[in-house]
Amino acid sequence: MKTTSLITALAAASVAAGIAVLPASGQDQPTTRTLTFVSTEKPGDEKFIDAKPKGYSVGDRFLLSSLLHSGSTIAGRVEAACSLQDPTYHAQVCTLTVILADGQLTLQGAGLDKKLPGVGDPGDVYAITGGTGAYVGAGGTMTRKGNGKKDTLTFTLE
To answer: What is the pTM (predicted TM-score) of this model?
Structure first.
């Protein structure tokens, strides 16, 4: 009797473990997707709004609209608004929206124009906070490299 009970218990445990594992093994694993665009600014694509006091000070804003290219094709636009938070390190906080043919991505980030002692250069990296269309539920990062007039934007979607 004890052997039968033990076999029955082991069989039930095996079935329960198999059922618990089935959904996890059948699910799609997360994938990383990379998108790369070149942002080109023309004169007039950026606007500086000088809040009082005159000159570079807390509350100043930068507005930007720029075309995005994939090769020689226009792929979308980036719309950004940044505000100056700290004149000592030229700290800026930015929100961005990227408009693409199959949806939009929203981003947020901060940066420093002057080195912060004891902290390495974080570079221009922004968090992808969400999206619409093909990008619903998007997360990840966007990295900017360039001179501000012609930049490569690399989106790593997770």
So the answer is: 0.75
